[in-house]
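WP5 quarterly update. Target: Substrate-binding domain-containing protein. Source organism: Litchfieldia luteola. Length: 423 aa.
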Amino acid sequence: MVKKNVFLRFGMLFLFAFLLIFVSACSSDTTTKEESPSTTEQPKEAAKEEPKEEPKEPIKIGVLASLSGALEAYGKQTVNGFELGLQYATGGTMEVNGRKIEFVVEDTETKPEVAIKKATKLLEEDKVDFIVGSSSSGDTLAVLPLAEEYEKIMVVEPAVADSITGSEWNKYVFRTARNSSQDAVAGAAAIAKEGVKIATLAPDYAFGRDGVAAFKDAAIKLGADIVHEEYADPAATDFTSNIQKIIEAKPDYLFVVWAGANSPWNQIADMKVQEKGIKISTGAPDIAALKTMQALVGMEGFTVYHHTLPNNDINKWLVEEHKAKFNGEVPDLFTPGGMNAAIAIVEALKKTNGDTDTDTLISTMEGMSFETPKGTMTFRPEDHQALQTLYAIRLEMVDGFDYPVPVLIRELTPEETAPPILN
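Structure tokens (predicted):
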């Protein structure tokens, strides 16, 4: 009996031990099966993650400039200013609302037929959203119809012919450059008054003829008498016959409208025009031309820009950054114009959150004010001409400069120099 009980107890213990092993084994299998799905499910979790956002299309700007030809210096100044303007306006990011800004520069060679070809390439091949340019009024007038045909905004800089925002204007044209009438108001304010006799000298193309026409209108309103108009070949290097005709007209003043490296200043001095009682007045040109104007110290006129004239933080930034980027050189006559064009485009894009739809941009830019190295500028809604400050100046020799410097007489306000609406 005892043996039977022992056997029974031993059997029960054995059975209990077997059950423990079986349960343990089942428990181990269950754990493995439960862990296995979590391993296979992890890729499913990764698949649920949001896909990365595709990069936004870049904003493309085509810049037309005279990088060769008579206006080469002006073209290079404009391009330098434009690049700095993009950096300034975007805070160095070169993007707006996540869209990178790219720009392509094309040389018009200061030839209208080349300007048309290069603009067409920018619009058709590069698919630009904006066109900026150009250095020559002739080049610019040739390209204006393309802006309308392709329905793209053209920001005109630095061409000044009145007809650009006058008879040849279309709604896609915005101009940060001043126009001939603004120059004329400034020039006339410096010399024109009742009974004063004035002769003019200008290159024989749209820039020169529009400039003289606008000056005449402003000067006559102030009581002056225009006694002679002289137009010279834009590519001329000898102005002897032109200057002789002016001397023979015996004006009190000679008002000169000129652009380009082939300026008449040396011959005006050589022919002793001022010693014959004829005072010279003009818009003070770029630094290279100012260096040829030693004989004109004391002349009163106006200027679009000299880096010493505007007193604001943006101009200070421009001067410092230009020196740093271009081997210590200061910005020149048309450098701020390039910067103004870039700032205007970026400010418009900021307001549209990077939208480059042309109609949206037009409605945004009409009446838009923006800050520049020359102070506040505003696109007039009626003709998209930027109203801006110009400077009445006197040429003087100043310590630290090896050329006559435009010294400020007074600022001519945007309201004061606002040109007539001609479109």
